[in-house]
Amino acid sequence: MKHLRSIDELGLDGLNKLLQLTDHMAEINQRPVPKVPALRGRTVASLFFEDSTRTRLSFETAAKRLSADTMTFNVSTSSVNKGESLRDTVATITDMGVDAFVVRHKSVGIPWQISAWTTASIINAGDGAHQHPTQALVDCYTIREATHAQNFAGMKVTIVGDIKHSRVARSNIQAFSMLGAKVTLVAPPTLLPPDISHWPVDVSHDLDEVLAESDVLYMLRLQSERMAQGHVPTLREYSEQYGLTQKRVMGLRSNAIVMHPGPMNRGVEMQIDPSDVKNSLIHRQVANGVSVRMAVLFELLGSGSNLGGQA
Amino acid sequence: MSDSIVIKNATIINRTSQLVADVKIENGFVAEVGKNLKGDTLLDASGCIVSSGFVDLHAHLREPGKEEAETIETGSRAGALGGYTALVAMPNTDPPQDSVAVIDFVREQGKRAGLVDVVPSGCITLGRHGESLAPMAELAQAGVTLFTDDGNGVQDAALMRRALEYAKGLGVTLAQHCEVAELTKGAVMNECRCCTDLGLPGWPAIAEELMVFRDIELVRITGASMHFLHLSTKRSVELVRAGKRDGLPITAEVTPHHLSLTEELLSSYNPVFKVNPPLRSTSDIQALKAGLLDGTIDAIATDHAPHPRRDKEMSLDMAPPGMLGLETALGVVLAEGACEIRDIVALMSWNPAKIARIDKAHGCDVAVGNKANLCVFDPELTWSIDINRLASKSVNTPYLGRTLRGRVRHTIFNGLPTVIDGQAQR
Ligand SMILES: [Zn+2]
Predict the structure, then answer these.
(1) How would you write the pLDDT of chain B (426 residues) with one tens digit per residue?
(2) How far is the CA of B177 from the centre of ligand 1 (A)?
(3) Could you tell me which residues are beta bridge partners of residue A277?
(4) Cβ contacts (< 8 Å) between A193 and chain B: which residues?
(5) CATH topology of domain B54-355
(6) Which candidate from A86, A87, A198 shows the least CB-CB separation from B193?
(7) B6 neighbors B23 (Cβ within 8 angstroms)
(8) Contacts for A275 with CB less than 8 Å, ≥ 6 apart
(9) Residue boundaries of the structural domains of chain B
(10) Cα(B146)–Cα(A37) distance, integer angstroms
(11) Residue A80 forms contact with B (CB below 8 Å)
């Protein structure tokens, strides 16, 4: 595997392989000294054109636990703003000797464009509303961990919210479906893409209608600018229709799981504190983030090395 | 007496005739058509077509303002290589072509290059801002016959109505870039399944069609003549067809890329495929081709839009729209096989010359006494682009690696060869 840019490119075999590898990484993370020398001498550069301290720290922690060197390019302060092109920036960093770029960008397709300009591996940490494959891996791993299911056959996953603008939704729809889950999208038509007839999903505009049948309820973040853009009249109305309220929590099955990719919009899609939800996996999602990203880095950069030994 | 040129053994395509003969050119005019003609310079044209030179209604030559992308000279050379003898220069320059000074500058630069007739179009509104009319009468006096805000559609329906009324008084034609801006905010590509998968904002067909509809109805009440630029959707073709059936004075063009490339190309994430209006679906292409055949579409125009390499190395959403077209138009259109060669000559020369009102010097039959603005092309020759040999200053062609069919061999402008055997002469 050279790059991780989308779940589609990864495929089912790649997905399963990374989930298995994550088990090893989770075991390493249980150790008193959670560090192995597997990627010693390798360098991982994080290139974040959009602020996301959470995701960046998750990757950098993962890299360090595998003994890789890390470089951080916070692009808001770098030369990209001074007229240097993205291609020049990537070429310069490549020349410093980088084995992988972790890229977050507001624009769709940047990870693919960059892969044409460097020999390093590319890990997509989110491109526009397109893909966020490591988040999907985290979510699949977290569901697997909670349900002990090797695949998701027969599982009903409901994804609620701003599907249209969500890279998390696009990656997760692909990943959940690949593993056999039945995915239902719940959103007002204005927050769905214009044509999804070719997606392997059911669609509902009524959360209460599908609540009781869901094994997993996946809440997406609603950004407040969607109101200004006319996608929803008011956040209050959205919250009433599509937010997770105490009443809706009561309507869930007793073993249903609640997830959210974070950061949460309290009072919008989440009207309750997640700790009030019995089966909330939101904290597990964060905790598993590091293990998943270790698995990804090891798979892309660790050829020839093994996971044994002490750092 | 200047030297004479004889084009040998070409198939001459004229409006009502077709014959194999030699064409002798002297003093800028066609001097003789016949067999076994002699002259100072002989240009072999066996197996080739000779027709009036092509006329592009839609070329962004970028000068003044963006000479990094193209100049009037490099754009003219690209045009000559594509068989063109006249290019209508789009007015979205910097400063824009909304004053006599800029119009004169563009025309003079065209003359200085001397490779094609550069025909400046004028802005409809000042600065192309869509707020108040440009000095259309002054520009018309300076020779402008085609007015457009291309790149922008005129959004304000009342202003567009006034512009049409005013244009009618001047006897000039308005050309619209049909795009309702509120419906295309941030749009990168056609609104389709592919844009759904990519998470990109879509450019819906309705954004074009609403303005086509509006302007057809404005033409109906004003009686002014109107040209529709780069139509890209099935329903747009239907609207224009219905408007023509009603006898309205409207004309329309399509680009070679909207006849040959589809939306899925954007999933390569390569901004070279980003263009405005966007590449559409196969069914739109079929409708555009049908429009070529039944006369709904009058012209094939390139929308030649050079951009420097670094601008096209930006992300899909940030990269400017547009692709090169002048050097590949014929090869793309012939490769598509959408219509007969005679139709192609009509669509690329006769009709656009009339729309641009330059039909005294361009788009004339290859006949004694007519101005020698001619194109000689081999309709069967297959070729592919060598990106290092483009005459354009930019390289943003979407046709790299594709096989094109039909190539310009010689171009004669004002009686002088600008291209011989596929080589620019200057
Ligand atoms: Zn345009």
Answers:
(1) 468 999 999 999 999 999 999 999 999 999 999 999 999 999 999 999 999 999 999 999 999 999 999 999 999 999 999 999 999 999 999 999 999 999 999 999 999 999 999 999 999 999 999 999 999 999 999 999 999 999 999 999 999 999 999 999 999 999 999 999 999 999 999 999 999 999 999 999 999 999 999 999 999 999 999 999 999 999 999 999 999 999 999 999 999 999 999 999 999 999 999 999 999 999 999 999 999 999 999 999 999 999 999 899 999 999 999 999 999 999 999 999 989 999 999 999 999 999 999 999 999 999 999 999 999 999 999 999 999 999 999 999 999 999 999 999 999 999 999 999 999 999
(2) 5
(3) none
(4) 195-196, 199
(5) TIM Barrel (3.20.20)
(6) A198
(7) yes
(8) none
(9) 5-49+370-424, 54-355
(10) 70
(11) no
- CATH numbers and ranges of domains, chain A: 7-132+287-301 (3.40.50.1370), 134-285 (3.40.50.1370)
Q: Which two tokens stand for residue B231?
A: 């139509």
Is B204's Cβ below 8 Å from some Cβ in A? yes
Q: State the Cα angle at B292 between B299 and B342, rounded to 5°.
A: 75
Residue B113 CA to residue B97 CA, distance in Å, equals 19
Which chain A residue lies closest to B183 (C-alpha atoms)?
Answer: A229
pTM, two decimals, is 0.95
Block residue for tokens 């409006």: B15
CATH class of B5-49+370-424: mainly beta
Spell out the SS3 assignment of B149-174: CCCCCCCCHHHHHHHHHHHHHHCCEE
Residue A256: alpha-carbon gap to chain centroid: 21
**Any catalytic annotation for residue B303?**
yes
